[in-house]
Amino acid sequence: MAARRIPMVKEAQILQTITKPISWLGEIIVSGISGIGEVVCILLNTLKQLRFIHKNPVLIVKQMISIGVSSLPLLFVTSIFTGMVATVQAEFEFHNLVADKFVGTAACKMILIELGPLLTAIVLSGRVGSAIAAELGSMKEKEELAAYTVLGLDTYRYLALPRFVAFFTMVPCLTIISNALAIIGGWIVCVLGLDITTYTYVTGMQYLFDPMDLWSGVLKSFVFGTLIFLLGYYHGVNAKAGARGVGIATMSVVVSSCLMILIADFVLDAILFF
Description:
This protein is mostly helical. It has helices at residues 2-48, 57-67, 72-94, 101-141, 144-150, 155-192, 198-206, 211-237, 242-273.
């Protein structure tokens, strides 16, 4: 009998070894689908509250200041140096190959289509998205979210709606400001470091300029802002108890936001330019 049990035990161990990764993969897939469904529900429930948008002006303006105005110093530095880097790289690639005006052409297109909206969204996901998750996670730990429910207050109306409206309106504005600052940064490098005149730089910007370059970046910013809000709110309200739980939620917002922004950027480029 003992001799028969040994092969059975080994078979059970082998079966467990085979099924364990399959079970792990299944849990990841189920968790991912559940998370996507919850994010969609957050978006739909927030959109339902838009009819109350005129009743929460103070909350909305407060979030606009927190998301938009408070982000300007960081955005200023990031955008200026982004334009400088884009212009230096364009000059390095085009040196002795084409006319100097094409430096302005390449820098303008890179900034308006990709660098401006993309880096603005990534900066905001790290600064504002993580802050939303930390704030909501702390409120959940202190049972403030439960208090809203007990008092009969809709959390989507008083917590989600102001943040959604602020992101949806301020991220495009910040993107346009970022584009302008990046172009100025490129101009500074051209005039002071690359011996390219202002006239040549501006003429290159106008050459091959398409209004779709500008509007595509603005359209992306609407999508990016919505993604940052959804992921920040989702990870915040689902944060686990304790400082560690809030920290994990904050980290998850930054990682997931950057990943989804890059994926959305690819999808939008494929739709808009192909």
